Amino acid sequence: xxxxxxxxIEFDNPPTIxxxxxxxGPKEANGPLAKYFDQCLDDEFWGESTWEKAESKIIKExxxxxxxxxxxxxxxxxxxFAGDLxxxxxxxxxxxxxxxxxxxxxxxxxxxxxxxLSLASVLAESCAKNVLVATSSHFCSAEKQFRFxxxxxxxxxxxxxxxxxxxxxxxxxxxxxGPFVTHITPGKIIDMGIKDGNSMGAAMAPAALDTLxxxxxxxxxxxxxxxxxxxxxxxxxxKEILTELAKKEGYNIEPNxxxxxxLIFDKKNQDTHSGGSGCACCGSVFSGYFFKQLRDKxxxxxxxxxxxxxxxxxxxxxxxxxxxxxxxxxxxx
Amino acid sequence: xxxxxxxxIEFDNPPTIxxxxxxxGPKEANGPLAKYFDQCLDDEFWGESTWEKAESKIIKExxxxxxxxxxxxxxxxxxxFAGDLxxxxxxxxxxxxxxxxxxxxxxxxxxxxxxxLSLASVLAESCAKNVLVATSSHFCSAEKQFRFxxxxxxxxxxxxxxxxxxxxxxxxxxxxxGPFVTHITPGKIIDMGIKDGNSMGAAMAPAALDTLxxxxxxxxxxxxxxxxxxxxxxxxxxKEILTELAKKEGYNIEPNxxxxxxLIFDKKNQDTHSGGSGCACCGSVFSGYFFKQLRDKxxxxxxxxxxxxxxxxxxxxxxxxxxxxxxxxxxxx
Lengths: 333, 333
Hints:
The structure is a homodimer. Chain A is α/β, with parallel strands linked by helices. Chain A has helices at residues 26-29, 51-70, 90-95, 112-126, 139-146, 200-219, 235-248, 260-263, 267-270, 279-295, 313-317, and strands at residues 2-4, 8-10, 16-24, 39-40, 79-84, 103-105, 130-137, 162-163, 166-173, 180-185, 228-231, 257-259, 276-277, 301-309, 324-332. Chain A has 2 domains: 2-173, 3-Layer(aba) Sandwich (Peroxisomal Thiolase, Chain A, domain 1); 180-332, Peroxisomal Thiolase, Chain A, domain 1, CATH 3.40.47.40. At the A-B interface, helix 3, strand 6, helix 4 and helix 11 of A face helix 3, strand 6, helix 4 and helix 11 of B.
């Protein structure tokens, strides 16, 4: 592999995404993508006593599922990358503590899935046969931790997004017949001073723009090169901002651009305001929907840009703005 | 690079650790390693209004310092890896948001420094010229978040450790004259069921053992191969446990083994009970002390094993045990 342009890595022997899996919660099961998910849960607890334990179980079972679907023996999975939104990423570390696979914990907030796929691809091209990637989020644990406990019954402002309950997981392999990871463009932290924790899409859109344009410049590609350009969880507001900002920079992404947070819920009937968010938003929509579209050759080239907001509850209380980040990965047949 | 044995990566063109830097707090400045640190602070706030902001400033200035000491232009640093103990790793993301370097957030609790050095080495051998690694911790922000606010004046039990206030940072480069990163052994999550959040050394020692023995087996090396074997923050209790457990497995590490948490504070006069801990424990002791020992050729081969406890306050409240992890890196002249 080699670095090209400002910050993109081009793979000489592009690794394959061998398999993906996703498990989602009951709200996601009522959304427009339900039929693409491997498993839909009936409730937010899945038999556990707390939301945190439920989230851990979801990522654990999703990782188990991708391994069993892939037919790859666990002993042939060399390393794994995982992370989530809970403090100290406990969903991942508790969910994968019995996996018996060397473990790299990552934290990219909702950009975690693509951060994981990126680093897994680097390891797969350079020294590993198979690398596991997993991420999760949970509406109830996220609301409790970042905003208010659900029991308070707070109203959510129209700009807020709905954290996806679920997990997405993938195995990236050195050998395989694709879909191939051809490029990654790891993003810089971009902070435009937005402080509203209920307007995440607006906070993250400038980071998505920076990574998007850097990717196009580094690879000499135009938006039209891709069948789909998909951001992770900018939601309705962030999607509009990114489309507009990109146009101002001379890139028209409108014809082939969509956002996982826009796709996963029904705007009319599901009352999620500005759409979905969370690590599992990008994780489950890619693992469930886009990966199958690639497998079925309905799309052949996708640029997946997962976006993350790198604040916490304390930083917001202390008056800080919200730093955003976006990592892009180009996946092609 | 290639994978050897069960989980070790051996570098064909070992990357160089070009430079390190560390800034520590006032307690560390009164410890036995004070003269090795680049900068010692007079107080825990460093002019900031909160501990979290102070910690962010420490990691920011430490990263700036390693860059200026190295003489490498920021534009020649391709990527960075950073993480810390604060919820959602805000010390790192706020500290590095102005760095203008593509950013991979990592979370390995107190194993973060070696996790970062490991992934930076992979990127340096495969595609990057220079990669920055940074990590921080802060006694006051950690106590507030993981145990009790300092204002409560709680007593600390004898098994507890003192979170190091400070940051460690390094630049890993493709080209250079060493010290070289020759091997990394990323660790698995090991959970032996210990639930006492004031006995971290005991909780992490089994993970250190697993990685240590795997490293020896994978590389066909004996403990005596290294001038120094150093764990990150097992402290007095964990150090004793690891020494004993290793002996039972047939590895006598006693002659050349030490722990950064034991080295950084004076047991008699500094009242830290079982020693130091935190991401900055391994980060600052390596960046300040061991790196200079390597540069001065006082030691030629070190195996650095950073250990992390992957729980959070909520998981402990919910009755969960503490999953441990340990990542090892072999650094040689």
